[in-house]
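Hi support team,

I'm filing this because I wasn't sure whether my run with calcium ion finished correctly. The job status page said complete, but I'd like someone to confirm that the output block is well-formed before I use it downstream. Pasting the exact inputs I used:
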Amino acid sequence: MPLRRLAAGLALCALAAVPALADPPPNLLPNGNFDEGEATALHWEAANGLTTFFVNEMGRGRIVKMDTQVDRLQALEWMKAFAADPTLPPPAKTPIAKDSFATIGGNEGVMLDSDFIPATPGQDYKLTVAIKGDGAPFVWIKGFQKHPKREAFVDAYQTRLVGLDASPTEWKTYAIGFNPTARMPKVEKFKVRLYAFWPNGLYCFDDVRIEAITAAEMAELVKAREHPGPLREGRPE
Ligand SMILES: [Ca+2]
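And here is everything the job wrote out:
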């Protein structure tokens, strides 16, 4: 890297460090750290106790843990039963080999959704999330708009953060910029979907943040996403 560019990069880092001293911008996603709520985390889908779990981890409070090494048929059957009656006790996991493709991780994957939050027209956002896992999980942003005829909301936008180079033992923080209404101006609301699949194993998520950002911050995140480098999509910050 030419020295001048390196110097400019360092100056940018120095500038970027200043706002970190101020209060962080508000998290637009309620309960992004999963700590609010008693038996279950408020503003998130319930964990089913077979493939999705809310567990406590020292220093982090509650986190989301997913197990994708679950027999696919057992997982599908349990998801149906749990949806019908969430008070049912979870079944004991049927043992299945680490490299088996007959798992939920080798097929549909495992997911857990947040509540919807409103999309402000034209607004750029930053998604940040802490990840630990046996592979590279995704964090989706899924946007919805009203169906032109039916009184229903339909899928209209999606983008994803990829937890590349996630570690099974060490938490890493990832970020992307996104704008759900830039190309789909009728998008009214969006949600976060935590998602893990292959390889079979354990995946953890914590500190999910959605922040409104400026056009300049968005341009930096987009550049980082398009050009390989230490800040490209899914790389640790
Ligand atoms: Ca937490």
